[in-house]
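Figure 2 data, in text form.
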Amino acid sequence: MMCKITYIMEDGTKKSVVVDKGTTILEGAINAGIYLDAPCGTGKCGKCKVLIEEGLENIEEISIVDGNYALACIARVYGDVVVKIPNFEGVVCKSISGYSSPSIIPDINIKKISTTVSESSNYNLTLKAIVKLNSMNLSDKVNLILKNNNVVNVEKDFSGIYGLSIDIGTTSVVVYLVDMCNGVVVDTISFLNPQRQFGADVISRIAYNNGDLLQKVLITELNNAISKLCSKNNIKMDNIYEVTVVGNTAMIHLFCGILPKNLATYPYVPTFKNSLYMPAKMVGLDLKNADVYTLPIIGGFVGADTVGAILSTEMHKKNEISLLIDIGTNGEIVLGNKEKLLTCSCAAGPAFEGVNIEHGTNAKEGAICKVKINEDCVYYETIGNKKPPIGICGSGIIDIMAELLRSGIVDKTGRFVGEHKNLRDNKFFIDDTIYFSQGDIREVQLAKGAIFAGIKILCHEYGIDIEDISKVYITGAFGCHIDVKNAKTIGLLPDLNNIIHIDNAAGRGAIMALLSEKIRNEANELAKNTKYIELSSHSNFETEFISALRFSK
């Protein structure tokens, strides 16, 4: 038996899909090509709540919340329904301002040759170039674009040589448009990774067991983003000649249409670790003249994004010992210098990106990003100064946790023990509707405990104390926005002085690789020579993790 789900968007447009009875509203949306943010997929987080405008009686009762709302991921339909989809807002774009990446002298073999049609036959022409030249007069002046000594494009008026660097995060995706003639970033665009509708973490997505669909939703959004970038900057998509891609191990696999099923079980072995170089059209990107280079992978849960981050810090070239912490859905950590690099991945969970936090949200307009607690009141800021707040993002979560500790409202074990007028029923209210609960505190403890335990294990394996670390680089989905003092207070970061924010180290590394063949070779050597430590099987991890669960101050 079949039934119809009709989805109404914020702008009033409608889209219907016919499904089998018992299909969830989320599954129907996926079939219809409609994006619904569903981080947990189990009904626990409540973030896929949708308004049922018609047919509430046709929905499984267990999924109904707050009157006429239902949780899309578990709301099975047994008759026709009409659903209103909440407005979808993407993440705040990660810029690359502030910290300066190492200067790169472009050495990719792409160049422009100005000549005439009659002289163009002296070059190695592709069939596409021949067809273009055949429509011109022999005396016409033309610009030949040579890539690896092959003519891949012909233009009468030179339009430029551009490339893209793409950072595929588990939560968000950032695309950088780069002028490859001078290495300048022209523009940037970001969006939530549409694979979130299959789960907030990579294991949930792997369990969905459909690599083709996971690739398709990602590539579709990438093509949309690239088209917008080019249109906004008056650049033809045919003038994109090179693309570099970074991401964690699972994201690189899924970008290539490969389901990394072995990452879901011990010993967490990726299908491949080497860098790939292929025509962009092989993965479905709408770029006729471009090739894609994916940076290499280090290990099961330390991917190409970590290689990019190492490149951008140049910690592998320095005498001093540095620590790199990439805080996202997973926490990747690198320790070392030019003599030796060790790395690990911490199963921190997505708490710092708002998942599993009752009023957590990703970093977008209206998200609480800063918090201060006084005796009588609570001060907060939202991204874009938008009111009322829609939830708490990662930097706000760290702030509220640190403030609760400083004010004595929460003790070192993570329990509510103090008094404040905003504390009611083990919930601390930031405003009338947004609160931070006892369960939220536990999620923060688990996340920060995993990261700090990873740091301790790497120091143990390296044979140093934390105090021997000269410099700490912080990056990741919200790394450049966190208050370092507050992060130290909750025990997320070591109590060291030389801590440097890098707003998107992985993206910077991807840009470096876009411009330089030398950097690509360097990336391959880095991936081979960086030693991966698997924390789950390390004898000291459980002890360090339990110790790190307590708050330090």
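Caption note: The mean pLDDT is 91.
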